[in-house]
């Protein structure tokens, strides 16, 4: 279980995350929603320890991770894999090598410097690419892929880290509707089939309701809602987002995503590069 207790993060005079406490049970898929500046991305970076908290503690399965350093911190970041909005790939390298980079935290220093990977690591990377339907592109330069394909490479890269938690920071914000749906379906399949806990930041209310069993809504650094997707009523949405321009914002985002409320679409068999 991931437990966040009173976590706070200040950037100068700005209070980005304000006394947040959450308990995330193993195997949950949690959508974190809120307007830009609500503290969603900062919260994920605190969990992954990309940044240090100003106050509070984070623990996982009883292990305090807030003050980890050195190798223990690298291993935590591997077991708590991060997927970014802008893919975080090396575009000049081929897809397979980008995925293998996910194993760096498990390698020795010299092996990491020369990007030397074992046959077992290569087998892991191949299996990860199969799972995201990108094995035929294994030797293609990452920069030649479409945005949706690059994000699925990033998911494969996260998978080879053998994570217990996947953190996805607005993974579909820069994608078209079809690719957004496919990425969300991939994350949902990993959550369902592997039992990996997934925390995903989303601007889109419709997407959060479609794919996440639990929704955490943030506003001004605080948690304003934490519950099942069906409990997030329009009245609660107004409370979280405020009333000014809410209808236009919600309608625009629902229309732009074209991802259904009831259940995710099946992924297409092919995708243009």
From TrEMBL:
MF terms in GO = ATP binding
Keyword Transport in the entry? The reply is yes
- Enumerate the spans annotated as ABC transporter domain: 2-245
**Entry's SMART domains?**
AAA
Annotated keywords: ATP-binding, Cell membrane, Membrane, Nucleotide-binding, Translocase, Transport
The text of the family note is: Belongs to the ABC transporter superfamily.
Q: What is this protein called?
A: Phosphonate ABC transporter ATP-binding protein
What is the species listed in this Swiss-Prot or TrEMBL entry? Chelativorans intermedius
Q: Which gene is transcribed and translated to give this protein?
A: phnC
């Amino acid at each position: 279980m991931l437990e966040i207790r009173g976590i706070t993060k200040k950037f100068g005079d700005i209070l980005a995350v304000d006394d947040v406490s959450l308990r995330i049970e193993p195997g949950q898929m949690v959508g974190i929603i809120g307007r830009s500046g609500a503290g969603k991305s900062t919260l994920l970076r605190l969990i992954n320890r990309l940044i240090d908290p100003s106050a509070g503690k984070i623990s996982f399965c009883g292990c305090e991770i807030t003050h980890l350093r050195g190798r223990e911190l690298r291993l935590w970041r591997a077991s708590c894999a991060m997927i970014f909005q802008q893919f975080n790939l090396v575009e000049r390298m081929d897809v397979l090598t980008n995925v293998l980079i996910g194993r760096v935290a498990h390698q020795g220093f010299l092996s990491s410097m020369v990007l030397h990977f074992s046959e077992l690591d290569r087998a892991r990377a191949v299996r990860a690419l199969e799972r995201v339907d990108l094995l035929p592109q294994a030797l293609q330069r990452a920069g030649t892929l479409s945005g949706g394909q690059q994000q699925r490479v990033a998911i494969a890269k996260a998978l080879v880290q053998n994570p217990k938690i996947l953190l996805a920071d607005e993974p579909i914000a820069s994608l078209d509707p079809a690719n957004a749906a496919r990425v969300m379906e991939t994350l949902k399949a990993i959550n369902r089939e592997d039992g990996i806990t997934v925390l995903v930041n989303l601007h889109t209310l419709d997407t959060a309701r479609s794919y996440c069993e639990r929704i955490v809504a943030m506003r001004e650094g605080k948690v304003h809602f934490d519950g099942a997707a069906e409990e997030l009523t329009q009245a609660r949405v107004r409370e979280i987002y405020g009333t000014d321009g809410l209808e236009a914002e919600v309608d625009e985002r629902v229309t732009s995503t074209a991802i259904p409320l009831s259940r995710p679409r099946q992924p297409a068999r092919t995708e243009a590069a």
